[in-house]
Amino acid sequence: MYSKFVLALSTALLTLVGAAQAQEAVEIGVVVELSGAGAPAGTNWRDGIRIAVDEINAEGGILGKPVKVTEYDTQTDPQISRALVQKAIDGRAYAIWGTIYSGSTLVNMLVAQQNGVPQFVGSEAPTIVEKGNPFVFRTSSGAQKGVPALVPYFKDTLKAKKVGVAWVNNEFGRGGRNVFIAEMKKAGIEVVTDVPSEQAQTDYASDVSKLKQSGADAVFVYMNQEESARFLIEAKKQGLSMPLVGEVTLTEAKVIELAGPAAEGAIAHVGITATADQVEGIAAFREKFVKTFKRVPTHDAIKGYIGAWTTKYVTELVGKFDGEAFSEKMHGLCLPATKYPRILLDTCWDNRGEVSRPSFMVQVRNGSPVVIGTVPAN
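Above: the chain's sequence. Below: its structure in token form.
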């Protein structure tokens, strides 16, 4: 009798241990800019992830395990971001979601690589994928893919012969500026003025004056959110009349909020936008985000959301929690939205972690970004 009791007790304990192990959470480190200059981007990234994690856990987690997220604020400081990626990994993070600022990602992605930890980033500088890091993956295309999509707009729609460039002098800005100038040269369009500015710059009077006197037919604006808003306000003040065209940030919700009426008419090519209501998944995400956070999401919120869901989809394709196997699976992978609906749009990654998907042209009209065209995946 005693032996049967012990056997029954042992079996019960093993069952409880097995159940506990099955429910052990998957640790994820969200390392992102929650304060400092990058806070508008970072808080949207984080909030998009929060929605995704709620959905993922409601659908059974990843391989039957709930997702547990720990958030780390980089303060928009590259060295702090590096230390926090290490801290997340020391805390047994299976994956890292972040950062957004390219200067930070270039520093911290080496830590994830050395530990074999997959990392999804919102960074768009070309150098991110040129380093040969097999564990880093973008959630929207880099400048070397996004900026060339603007060439037909400058050449065929605007029929520009001369252009000016206004850009922020950081890793993000330099990358986009260099690609744009090279593409204009190939298109036979002259760059008549090239105006750099500094991150967190507040006075754009001189920059706008140079552009106004340059004789440019249009201006390419490539800055982070707060800088973009300040530039637009000064451009409106000085009556800068030529079209202002950007990539990624110029027409996003935070810029429009900060710039107010000065953002009216601004145009941008965006890899993904919450205003693409014609895409069912994006419209549903936007509705849920607005209901949850009482504000309109930026593209960074969608990028974070996609990174989280891709982690679930690919881990379950691999069938185990293995960073190296995950990385191998990601390279050359395509996820169609019909089969993986939370990916929102058909999305592919190449062997460098660069992403490819359809994209959009957007213009600010009556205080809101409006999709004015689509661009095929390249």
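The chain is about 45% helix and 20% strand.
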